[in-house]
Amino acid sequence: MNDKNVKLTDEAITALIRNYTREAGVRNLEREIGNVCRKIARKVVKEGEGYNVTVTLRTWTTFLRH
């Protein structure tokens, strides 16, 4: 996986900070972003290097549910 496979919108990052991180702060933010990136990495392996995704507010919630 590389920077061509995934892009994060500012809206998605802001929502993640506001809704999914609490008192643990930066550590929890890093964990949540890592969870989403690992799920995207699995999709890249399954779909191939041509798989690209832009993580928006809608796709954040999709990735966090699974």
Helix-strand sequence: EHHEH
Uncertain regions spanning at least 5 consecutive residues: none
- What is the overall pLDDT average? 82
Helix content: 55-70%
Task: Provide a concise account of the structure shown.
The chain is mainly α and 66 residues long. It has 3 helices and 2 strands, in the order βααβα. Strands 1-2 form a two-stranded parallel ribbon.
Give an overview in words.
This protein is mainly alpha-helical. It is 64% helix and 9% strand. It is built from three helices and two strands, in the order E-H-H-E-H. A two-stranded parallel sheet has the order 1-2. It starts with 5 loop residues before the first strand and ends with a helix. The model has no long low-confidence stretch (mean pLDDT 82).
Detail the topology: elements first, then pairings.
Blueprint lengths: L5 E3 L1 H11 L5 H22 L5 E3 L1 H9 L1
Parallel strand pairs: 1-2
Keywords:
66 residues, mainly alpha, two-stranded parallel sheet, 3 helices, 2 strands, 64% helix
